[in-house]
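Q: How do we represent a protein-ligand complex in a form that can be generated cell by cell?
A: Start from the inputs.
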Amino acid sequence: MKDLIIIGAGPAGLAAAIYGIRAGLDLMVVERLSPGGQVMNTFEVENYPGFEEPVPGWELMSKMEGQARRLGAEIASGDVASVRKDAGSGIFTVALNDGTSMESKTVISASGASYRRLNVPGEEEYLGHGVSFCATCDGAFFKDRICAVIGGGDTALEEAHFLTRFAKKVYLVHRRDKFRGAKILQNRVQETEKIEPVYDSVVESIDGETTVKGVTLKNVKTGKTSSLAVDGVFIFVGFTANTSYLPPDVLDGNGEAAVDARMRTSVPGLYAAGDLRSGSRRQIVMAAADGATAALEAYDYILGLT
Ligand code: NAP
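Then emit the C-alpha cells for the protein with NAP bound:
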C-alpha cells in the first residue's frame, strides 16, 4: 500500500510529487496521457516565475517531470475510474478503467480540466478536419489560411495571437462586446493587424464538406445570422473539471472538487489541487502551489494516523 497516490501529472500533480517525496512519502503518480497536462499545448509561458524569457510549455513541463523523476517519483500510466475510501480501515482504493486497482493512505486528485465544447453542429464532425482545441498542435496546418478563434478569455486571446504566425487572417469571435482576457493580451490582439474581432456573436454551426469551409454566426444583439468563410475553427471557451471519478459528495454545483484553503475535500485524506478544484484561477504557478500544499497536508494526515 502506498502512502499517497497522486492522480494527474500536470503542474499540480508533479509539484505534489516533488513535495511528497521530499517529505519521505512512498507515492505514485497516475497519469492518463503523457505527463505535462494542458501546458504541453501552450506555445510559450511568460508568467511562470523563474524564467526571464518566455519558456515553451513543453520545456517547462519536461523540467518539472524531470525534477520529480530525479527525486524518485514513479509516474505510471492509468485512467482512474473511481476513488473510494473504506469507512472501516480508512484506506483508499483507486480503481483504474483496465480493472486493476491500488491502495493508499491518502489521495491527491490533480487531473485538471478538459476543453469545454460549444455543442454546435459540425463541432465533433470536423474535429481534426478543421476544428481544433490546440493552436500549438495544429496551427502550422493553417499556413496562409483563414481561421476563426472562438472565445474571449486569456486562452482565446493568446491562441489567436499565436495563430497569426501561420494564418493570413484570424477572426476572433466573442459572444460579448468586451473580452474577458488580461489587458496585456487584449492590447496585443488589438495591435495585431491579422486579427479581426467579431463581437456579440455566437457560433450556430460549423459548416463544410470533407473539411471546414465556414461558420454560421448569430449576432446576439440583432438576432441576424451570417456566414464567415474560414478553413479552421479553434475553440477556446473555457474548461470543465476532470472529476468524474471522485465521490459526488466532494463536488460543488459546477462539478469541481470543493476544497478548503488547505486543499482538503470533505473526505479526510482526499485532497484536490489545480484546475479541477473549486475557485481555481487556472494558473500554472497556482496549480503548483496547490499541489505542494496538498502534499504537505497529506504528510501531516499520515503522521496523525500513527
Ligand atoms: P475562460 O476565462 O473561462 O474564458 C472562456 C471564454 O469563452 C469567455 O470569454 C466566455 O465568454 C467564452 N465562452 C464560454 N462559453 C461559451 C460558449 N458556449 N460560447 C461562446 N463563448 C463562450 O477560459 P480560458 O480563456 O480558457 O481561461 C481559463 C483560465 O485559465 C482563466 O482563469 C485564465 O486566466 C487562465 N489562463 C491564463 C493564461 C495566462 O495567464 N497566460 C493563459 C490561458 C488561460 P464570456 O466572457 O462572455 O463569459
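The chain has a mean pLDDT of 96. The pocket of NAP is lined by residues 47, 118, 150-156, 158, 175-176, 180, 202, 236-239, 281-283 (CB under 6 Å).
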